[in-house]
Amino acid sequence: MVEPLASSDPRRIGPYQLEGRLGAGGMGQVFLGASAAGRRVAVKVIRPELAATSQFRARFAREVEAARRVGGFHTAQIVDADPEAASPWLAAEYIPGPTLQQVIAAQGPLPPDAVLRLGAGIAEGLAAVHNCGLVHRDLKPGNVILAADGPRIIDFGIAHTPDAGPMTHTGTVIGTYAYMSPEQIRAPAQVTPASDVFSLGSVLTFAATGRGPFDASTVLAIIHRVTSEAPVLTDIAVGSPLHALVCHCLAKDPAERPPTSEVLRRLAVTAPAAPPVPAMPPAIPPLPATTPVDGRPIRRRSVLFGGLAAATAVAAGPTAFVLWPKDAPPAEPKDEPKASKSPDRDITRPVGELKGHEGNIESLAVSRDGKFLATGGNDTTLKLWDLTARREKATFEGHTDAVWAVAFSPDGSTLYSGALMELFAWDANSGAAKKKLAAYESEDDFVKCLAVSPDGKTLAVGVGGRIELMDPSTGRVRETLEGRAGSVAFSPDGKTFASVAGQSDKSGIRLWDTATGRLLKTLGGGEEENYSEVSFSPDGETLIANGPGVQLWDVASGRLARKLTDQHEHLDSAAYRPADAGTSGKAIVVGGGRFVETEKTDTVGRTVSVWDADSGNLATTLVVGDPKTPMRAYIGRLVFTPDGTTLAGVCTPAPDEDGIEPSVQLWRLP
To answer: Catalytic pick from 113, 138, 379, 572?
Structure first.
């Protein structure tokens, strides 16, 4: 699907006029472009943080030159590039047609004969890649375009020369876990063409069954299955040519997998001849066979899924980030010398940070489209950040005190912010103040927290010793509820909202009826349960509250379902990963720790814990900066982007820590 260009997108790259967005990945944005003669291309523009290093530019230039040599009918050709541009880019042949992923999702698994013929086309493309000294490293159903003249392998923006070293920045692993080889997960810089053969086996399994051979509900489970378990091939007939080939390709040991030339030979022999293609092809027409002549396969174009109407193109595959379980570090190949360890394997570090406030950052919110982040600081400013470009978009000035609360309207057009004795609504596009919603008279009236209902009709304001339910368009208060609130959150359906009083008041978690303001129930409370933040799970069935650990409460019964603890004495913030994070798992909870004066401060205070909420196991620990460099700081407020791929956390230095600026740290989760 081609999306319209954003206001911040370039309109021209090199000689190509840009017409729309095709996708984005770990290396950059991909646009649909047109040459002066009207020929369409897919233009990938490299991310600024990668382009800033001369080492990356040199490798990128080498890989572009190698990729240009890739021939054959089954790959997307590189047609132009400029590694020396301010924003390096490459242009590839634009190939209209659905991806294998889309076809299987729409019509189900393919017949065995069609899978074999599809495999022949993909194997021929991989052979062309490998003959040029490249390894694709991200072969998956979404990177196989089913064009009118046969399957095409796309996304050479991350193809990699085996001897060039890691192409990506620290903390990344190229590929999508369900289709990655074991060695690519363990040592991404050490992959060979055998890794692509493993991915081919997984792709063919998906085409034949509609599932990957290592599918699971969480990334950690997928990683375990890829590295330690046999593939699931129950829907492929045992003893069939396809079963034998897939088993061979999915061998854990790279040395036991067949080379692409052998894969192609076996597919050319076993794929049966196709019947004549009808004048009006069905939705899934048969694939022509690749038959051997004098022991060598004939290169020919195949008619494949020609009747399916879809428009996809060369798009960037996502860059994935491994979350290793704390007690199960990735196994290393026995023959890998210690000196060959790559820094790319340290995936717990941030992928970016946002700096600009002249004091501590006190509040944080993300827009519902995931494009923008808002922060409020004790420098009295409210800042809006472009998360795609990772830069400041606007500064809103008007508050007279620290901005302790901030929230977006559901459509992202309005930004609400609260401080001492005042509450503002801002135009998120222009930065102009739309309305001063409230001007309070008492110095006790400090707006501590804000939340907007899913329908945008109610703004919950925690101010002074009460909670106000306000019409955000007029500022009129509909209900005033007793109870000091340090945090408020609406349920996904908007019918209820929760509040916690904050660290100074041990009154537990309160659930309220949004329509009437009636108190429904109180959860927890007591000397040890001083919470600082509360939020709902994506399905609304669980409430999470942080404090001495993260507590998961069952909303219906009011019972404590689970408590997650780690090395932190107190967790200042916790967040539930959104449900639409795909196969990466829908039950992930994170928590950031408070700064405490202990010998462990340097390593404990600046960390974020990541739990599998279903099992209660600590999956990994995210850190700020280099763990070996002493830095006394803590991670406060946390928020996920709606797609669950990016986690933002406020990093606050210790009061006497010099040379460290307050910032928002950004982590990418798989």
So the answer is: 138
| DSSP per-residue codes, 139-157 | -SGGGEEEETTEEEE--GG
* Interatomic CA distance for residues 528 and 542, integer angstroms: 21
* Domain covering 364-444+471-483 in this structure, CATH number: 2.40.10
Q: Of the candidates 32, 48, 50, which has an alpha carbon nearest to the alpha carbon of residue 40?
A: 32
Strand extents, DSSP E, 58-143: 78-82, 89-93
CA proximity to 578, closest of 531, 613, 547: 613
Domain 12-322, CATH number (from 3.30.420.40, 1.10.510.10, 3.90.1700.10, 1.20.120.140): 1.10.510.10
- Cα within 13 Å of Cα(138), Cβ side: 23
In the chain, CATH 2.40.10 sits at 364-444+471-483
Q: Taking the model in full, what pTM does it have?
A: 0.51
Beta strands in 429-529 (DSSP E): 433-439, 447-452, 459-463, 466-470, 477-482, 487-490, 496-500, 509-513, 519-523
CA distances from 243 to 113, 479, 509 (A): 12, 65, 55
Q: Is 200 helix (H, G, I), strand (E, B) or coil?
A: helix
- Give how far the C-alpha of residue 408 lies from the chain's centroid of Cα atoms, to the nearest Å: 21
Q: Outline which parts of the chain fall under CATH 1.10.510.10.
A: 12-322
Task: Retrieve residue 623's tokens.
Answer: 């850190």
344 near 170, Cβ under 8 Å? yes
Q: Is 337 exposed, middle or buried (0-12, 13-18, 19+ CB in 10 A)?
A: exposed
Active site residue 471: no
Pairing mode of beta strands 663-668, 352-354: antiparallel
Give me the phi and psi of 667, to 5 degrees please.
Answer: -115, 145
Calculate Rg over the CA atoms of the chain: 27
Alpha carbon separation from 583 to 76, 212, 215, 484, 588 (Å, rounded): 28, 12, 8, 39, 12
Burial of 238 (0-12, 13-18, 19+ CB in 10 A): exposed
For the chain (length 670 residues), average pLDDT per consecutive 10? 82 92 75 87 85 80 74 73 88 84 88 90 87 84 84 65 41 63 83 93 95 84 90 89 94 94 80 40 34 31 28 29 28 34 55 90 92 93 90 89 95 93 89 86 90 96 93 94 89 94 66 94 71 88 86 92 83 80 58 56 66 84 71 83 89 74 88
